[in-house]
Write a structure and sequence with these properties.
- This protein has about 280 residues and is α+β, with helices and mostly antiparallel strands.
- It is built from 8 helices and 12 strands.
- The protein has helices at about 5-15, 75-85, 100-110, 145-160, 160-165, 175-185, 225-240, 255-265, and strands spanning about 1-5, 35-45, 45-55, 60-65, 90-95, 115-125, 140, 185-190, 195-205, 210-220, 245-250, 265-275.
- It has a 12-stranded mixed sheet with strand order 1-2-3-4-5-12-6-11-10-9-8-7, sandwiched between helices.
- Strand 3 (about 45-55) and strand 4 (about 60-65) form a beta hairpin.
- Helix 2 (about 75-85) crosses helix 3 and helix 4 (about 145-160) crosses helix 6.
- It is globular, with a radius of gyration of 19 Å.
Length: about 280
């Protein structure tokens, strides 16, 4: 077990997924904790079998990926990885690692874990046609849009419980969250009648050849008009123009979102489980 750099992590993710790092958006997120990020490699005889990554200084999820072509890590090995990544926190990992992770959490933290969400990871496999973007007049959000972005984030959070499952247990200041997002992410807005009605975001920089789209939200009064698809494709167009692969997560229990992304040429590449530590 050893710590590693961003560069080493990306190299190992490429090896883990046969040159297709976009199968797991491990090194890529919308921001870092106040103390940066921590990455670690779990190795056997000098060969990496599992990697982990987390933001330091907050309760961000530990993101974990294992080699597809090698035996899965044992509970004791995974417990060592969890200790290396920090104290008790949520975990996002391949669904088939869930039972191992549960036992590992008991070893590492003296706690069990419960499934919070079952997630699907999608990769864009459509034509490399950035011209499909901006078909409904989306634009990049600016600092002047902080209030509107904060309102959207609060509505998104109320509907999806996002920040609860992503590890934030404290009361959320959505204005501060919007300001941080505008610094660390690219946000697109679609407006009608002079006000925003749809929003989506992506990481400001690509990592390991991929870039993750997230927090796509449409005002309930403007749904079923193609606005969600438009803001997604606006983000897709930018990512493709930068030479990266667009990726995104959905909840497996949300048929509308899963159906939408399939119609937009996204392909499901991995099923994941989000585990939350139990309380004492």
């Amino acid at each position: 077990m050893r710590a590693c750099s961003d560069v080493e992590l990306e190299e190992e993710v490429r090896r883990i997924h046969g040159g297709r790092p976009e199968r797991f958006s491990l090194p890529c997120s919308f921001g870092t904790g106040p103390d940066g990020k921590r990455h670690a490699l779990l190795q056997r005889a000098g060969t990496t079998v599992c990697v982990g990554s987390t933001s330091v200084g907050d309760r961000a999820a530990r993101l974990i990926a294992a080699r597809l072509d090698r035996p899965r890590p044992s509970p004791s090995e995974l417990a060592d990885l969890l200790r290396q990544l920090g104290g008790p926190a949520p975990m996002v990992l391949s669904a088939d690692l869930g039972p191992v992770a549960g036992e590992a959490a008991g070893m590492a933290w003296g706690l069990g874990v419960n499934p919070r969400l079952h997630l699907a990871l999608y990769r864009y496999d459509g034509p490399p046609d950035p011209c499909r973007a901006n078909r409904s007049g989306s634009r990049r959000a600016t600092r002047e849009d902080v209030r509107a972005v904060a309102d959207f984030m609060q509505a998104f959070d109320a509907e999806t419980d996002y920040h609860s499952w992503s590890g934030s247990g404290d009361r959320i200041d959505f204005t501060e969250l919007a300001e941080r997002s505008l610094e660390s992410s690219v946000l697109h807005l679609i407006e009608q009648g002079g006000r925003p009605v749809a929003i989506g975001q992506r990481a400001r920089t690509s990592s390991a050849g991929q870039n993750r789209i997230g927090s796509v939200y449409v005002d309930p009064a403007h749904r079923r008009r193609g606005l969600g698809a438009s803001v997604v494709m606006s983000l897709v167009g930018e990512i493709l123009a930068e030479g990266a692969v667009p990726c995104l997560f959905t909840q497996q229990s949300d048929p509308a979102s899963n159906g939408l992304y399939r119609t937009l040429d996204f392909t499901e590449t991995e099923r994941l489980v989000h585990l939350e530590p139990t309380t004492h």
